[in-house]
């Protein structure tokens, strides 16, 4: 017993550099969490996008001229899908920590033999998985209803990943900060939703006043949606290269902030 206690000291990590089994287990648990209620987490965003598309196509679709060389509906559809990618990725990771704190089962993660980097990465990648599934199903359904097709698979993959990764990591930060559902609603209603609607989903930035155009180009959601839309219409409202660099740096920054806060136990440990 004495020899064993010397070999395995309390607090000593008994895994290699990465606990791959633990990382995979937490990731699988997070994926199953949203798959169990698939009608709410997968198809509800799809229905929401379809309703937006239907209402706007009936209201202004036929009266609106071409946008970036394509019809307004073709311009709109990828933006609606990208908007759901953004919002659902944030919703997944934020609810994971928020509900975990309220129900008290956050301790299952805190006491698990997982490093802060492994926890943050697992939850973020689960959020990415949810967004990718929503995007995949939405693209298939939309392709039967309107004339859209993928013309650039590289930008589709990279912007889908970066967008959902950033919002997944941001959701972890919001979930740790929020102490009740009202706090989370505040973040969603006053940050996520406004940035989504001001990102060029329904219009191009050149329709805004000059001052607002400059501000709009600082909005990361603009580059997320613009890059995703470029994958379908081969036209962009901004610079794809700038967007790729901007989002890459932002993804590392947001993930690192989430990692530091979780490592510190920000609003997780009493």
Structure notes:
The chain has 270 residues and is an all-alpha fold. It has one domain. 74% of the residues lie in helices and 0% in strands. The chain contains 11 helices and no strands. The protein has helices at residues 2-7, 20-35, 38-61, 72-103, 107-110, 116-145, 153-177, 181-197, 210-216, 220-233, 240-264. It is elongated, with a radius of gyration of 20 Å. The mean pLDDT is 89.
Q: Low-confidence segments, ≥5 residues, pLDDT <50?
A: none
- How many distinct beta strands? 0
Q: Radius of gyration over alpha carbons?
A: 20 Å
Helix content: over 70%
Secondary-structure-based class equals mainly alpha
The succession of helices and strands, N to C, reads HHHHHHHHHHH
Main sheet overview: none
* Number of helical segments with 4 or more residues: 11
What distance separates the N and C termini? Answer: 33 Å
Percent strand equals under 5%
The pLDDT mean sits at 89
Identify the overall geometry: elongated
Domains (count) = 1
How do the strands and helices of this protein lay out in sequence?
Blueprint: H1 2-7, H2 20-35, H3 38-61, H4 72-103, H5 107-110, H6 116-145, H7 153-177, H8 181-197, H9 210-216, H10 220-233, H11 240-264
Helix pairs in contact: 2-6, 3-4, 3-6, 4-6, 4-7, 4-8, 4-10, 6-7, 6-11, 7-10, 7-11, 10-11
């Amino acid at each position: 017993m004495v020899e064993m206690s010397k070999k395995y000291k309390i607090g000593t990590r008994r895994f290699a550099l990465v606990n791959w089994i633990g990382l995979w287990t937490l990731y699988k648990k997070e994926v199953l969490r949203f798959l169990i209620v698939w009608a709410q987490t997968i198809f509800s965003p799809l229905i929401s996008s379809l309703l937006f598309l239907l209402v706007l196509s009936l209201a202004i679709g036929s009266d609106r001229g071409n946008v970036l060389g394509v019809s307004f509906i073709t311009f709109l559809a990828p933006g609606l899908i990208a908007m759901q990618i953004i919002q659902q990725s944030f919703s997944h990771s934020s609810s994971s920590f928020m509900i975990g704190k309220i129900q008290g089962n956050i301790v299952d993660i805190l006491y698990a033999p997982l490093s802060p980097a492994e926890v943050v990465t697992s939850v973020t990648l689960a959020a990415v998985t949810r967004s990718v599934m929503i995007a995949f199903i939405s693209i298939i359904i939309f392709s039967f209803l309107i004339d859209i097709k993928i013309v650039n698979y590289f930008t589709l993959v990279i912007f889908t990943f970066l967008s959902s990764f950033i919002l997944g990591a941001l959701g972890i930060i919001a979930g740790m900060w929020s102490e009740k559902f009202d706090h989370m609603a505040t973040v969603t209603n006053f940050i996520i939703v406004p940035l989504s609607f001001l990102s060029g989903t329904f219009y191009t930035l050149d329709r805004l006043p000059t001052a607002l155009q400059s501000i709009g180009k600082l909005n990361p959601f603009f580059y997320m949606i613009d890059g995703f839309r470029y994958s379908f219409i081969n036209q962009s409202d901004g610079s794809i290269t700038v967007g790729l660099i901007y989002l890459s740096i932002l993804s590392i920054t947001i993930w690192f902030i989430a990692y530091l806060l979780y490592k510190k136990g920000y609003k997780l440990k009493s």
